[in-house]
TrEMBL record, chains A, B:
<dbReference type="GO" id="GO:0016787">
    <property type="term" value="F:hydrolase activity"/>
</dbReference>
<dbReference type="Pfam" id="PF00293">
    <property type="entry name" value="NUDIX"/>
</dbReference>
<dbReference type="InterPro" id="IPR020084">
    <property type="entry name" value="NUDIX_hydrolase_CS"/>
</dbReference>
<dbReference type="GO" id="GO:0019693">
    <property type="term" value="P:ribose phosphate metabolic process"/>
</dbReference>
<dbReference type="GO" id="GO:0006753">
    <property type="term" value="P:nucleoside phosphate metabolic process"/>
</dbReference>
<feature type="domain" description="Nudix hydrolase">
    <location>
        <begin position="41"/>
        <end position="169"/>
    </location>
</feature>
<keyword id="KW-0378">Hydrolase</keyword>
<dbReference type="GO" id="GO:0005829">
    <property type="term" value="C:cytosol"/>
</dbReference>
<dbReference type="InterPro" id="IPR015797">
    <property type="entry name" value="NUDIX_hydrolase-like_dom_sf"/>
</dbReference>
<protein>
    <submittedName>
        <fullName>ADP-ribose pyrophosphatase</fullName>
    </submittedName>
</protein>
<dbReference type="InterPro" id="IPR000086">
    <property type="entry name" value="NUDIX_hydrolase_dom"/>
</dbReference>
Length: 179, 179
């Protein structure tokens, strides 16, 4: 493979915020030319596909300000500093749905949109669920919905589920459980 | 359903760039409190799952500066102003792989990471492919790889494919073609 690497010439952080930072870099391209690169620095995150004993998957509805709509999503959240993905997955599942998982299995991981951010998403399958109290973050308002896995898959194709990590996670879990 | 909407109190664009803008808003939460919201404004985009006559899916390797690695991805790209998703999908497929599609079918659409950006990804299945010349953007260096769909699905679970739109698109196409 030809070397595709881009080398940093200079780097400037133009914004430092609450959940993200923005960096604007100059890079040297493989052809020797220069270009600019805008990078949103974001923490790693987890998403959980929680499947209950009755085969229903627990999803959450949440208002997403950047897109101006309520989305139906897999429970998810950012990793705290030094937190490992599995600990974060257990914490977010409990906070957003109230459930704790007897079985937690990593399915896959991916960059959510590697063209402009380093956000890395770890996806887990949670089973053997025990109900409990929801405990969301102070500025987070989520409602739990239980949907059959088959129905959730159909909602990907009919446009009722429109969140990337949820689509990837549901299909990856569905495909894995069918094998 | 309880009203989950967050209302904009004030909005400030802190950065205007080449591929993205950054906005920092104050919002009124459903509980009457205020909070801040950081929003990366990005264009809509498309990803294509191109499946050749021999059943192989055409993927592209590309250095992704924000994550510092070469990723194996579905052909994809941003929509030009006023361009519709299908036109963009045909253009990006041709630019990145050289192929044109006799059949192009929308599979699904999703927000890539709705917690901090409005980027909306339209995903297409492309079939009846005819080879031609690659024609990438000036600062874009991509190499085409043909992989059997079955192998591509396995690469989601073994960590060789680590791009969100590619995982969602491959699994959505695979599941649809198997029905």
């Amino acid at each position: 493979m030809k070397d595709l690497k881009e080398t940093t010439i200079s780097s400037k952080r133009v914004y430092e915020g609450k959940i993200l930072n923005l960096r604007v870099d100059r890079v040297l391209l493989p052809n020797g030319k220069e270009s600019g690169r805008e990078v949103v620095e974001f923490s790693e995150a987890v998403a959980i596909v929680p499947i209950a004993e009755d085969g229903k998957v627990l999803l959450v509805t949440q208002y997403r300000y950047p897109v101006g709509d309520v989305l139906l999503e897999a429970p998810a959240g950012k990793m705290d500093p030094k937190e490992d993905p599995e600990t974060c997955a257990r914490r977010e599942l409990q906070e957003e749905t109230g459930y704790t998982a007897g079985s937690l299995e990593k399915i896959c991981e991916f960059y959510t949109t590697p063209g402009f951010t380093n956000e890395l998403m770890h996806v887990f399958l949670a089973q053997e669920l025990t109900p409990g109290e929801q405990n969301p973050d102070e500025d987070e308002f989520v409602q739990v919905e239980a949907v059959s896995l088959q129905d959730a898959i159909a909602m990907i194709y009919n446009g009722k589920i429109r969140d990337g990590k949820t689509i990837a996670g549901l299909l990856a879990a569905y495909n894995m459980l069918k094998e």
